[in-house]
Amino acid sequence: MLDIAFKDFKAKKGRTAMCIIGVVVCVLLIGTVNLVLYEMESGLKGDLGTVNGKLYFEKNGTSYPPSGSIITESLGNEVLNRNEVDQSKSTKALFVPVQGSNNTQYTMIVGVTPGKEQAFIQNAKVTGKSSLVGESSDAVIIGSETAKNYNATLGSIITVQGNKYKVVGIMKKVGTGWPLTIDNSMIMSLSHAQSVTDMSGIVSTVIISPKGSSDSAETSLQDAYPNYTIFSQKDTKKTIDDNLSQIRIFMNMISTFIFLVSVIIIMIVMMMSVKERTKEIGTMRAIGTSKRKILALILYESLILSLIGGVIGILLMSPTYSMLGVLMGATGVNFLSFNIPSAIVTQVLVIVFVIGTFSGLIPAYIATRISPIDALRYE
Questions:
Q1: Closest CA to 197 of 70, 335, 54
Q2: Residue 247 — pLDDT band, cuts 50, 70, 90?
Q3: What is the tally of helices (H) and strands (E) in the chain?
């Protein structure tokens, strides 16, 4: 049956190409949509993962990064002096997003107390200095994306929002896909951050390394400050769901629509194929070919066409996603270097198999209903 299917592909090149192109377009659209959602979710999980056992004392209604939170520095000092807080590993911090080197990028200014940088940096590897102690007020430690956006190297001077900064340390990339806040950050002394952002006496959060149990410290702080939020790792799932729930629904609607259109297109083409081969199928039935084999023949054709289109679509997914990044303003994109996650590839292959099966069912059933006598009379 497979040899008959391939012979039909050669005989009907236009129809075959139409099916394959339809599947390729379907795979590219569904794959790219799911890949965008996957990268967004992975990036958000990675960003929130940098909380890593810390507690963020914030104003109600904020999350991570706490750039929307505003508290007084005096309140921050009060929180730092509580028994639940390990002062040696905790710090007041100011988070302020500013326009980056072009309109599509941003840089997150993170002001911390010199010597307490690890509260934010944590386990990120730093080339150069990982502390601002002993450095001038304009010294900064920058993330990998900030370094790329400003073409910065160790010792270079960068200009952000009209202010010049000396790069004394560069963090290696933390995020695996979507850039994280830490990758887009520029760490400086808290006093200098307050000065350049005109936020004297103001901080965004207190990054707390709790003494003992994180849960008990969170409960104690929340009881003491009911009008403020204690953001912890257990809040990450809720934040992810809140941020992505509507996006997931929208993306899934798009994927479902594309899937249905692809099934209908291939089904129509396969039904045309059955109609064109009415006499051939009737001859096969007349010489004893069973209905089961006729059914298998049409399904084989549908599955093979879907598989070919699926493989081509998967191969084109990386450059397509990279092109999408270029259209959104990304720079320095390598069209062949992006690795498609195995979860997305598996998902696409399952979709291709389902498309091939469902789009071939009705044409295959129609083929089995062809009467040998009527088919031999068909012109």
A1: 70
A2: confident
A3: 12, 12
C-alpha span between 100 and 157 (Å, rounded): 15
Residue 225 — φ and ψ, nearest 5°? -130, 75
Q: Residue 231: how many CB atoms within 10 A of its CB?
A: 24
Supply 255's token pair. 């994927």
Q: Compute the distance between CA of residue 128 and CA of residue 266 in angstroms, rounded to an integer.
A: 58
Task: Check: pTM over 0.70? Answer yes or no.
Answer: no
State both tokens at 327: 């259209």
Copy the structure tokens of residue 60: 């109600």
Provide the pLDDT confidence category of residue 17 given band limits of 50, 70 and 90: confident
Give per-residue pLDDT as tens, 209-235. 998 888 899 999 999 999 999 988 777
Residue type, 72: T
* Residue closest to 32 by CA, chosen among 350, 348, 328, 330: 348
**3-state SS, residue 304:** helix
Q: How far apart are CA 4 and CA 294, in angstroms?
A: 11
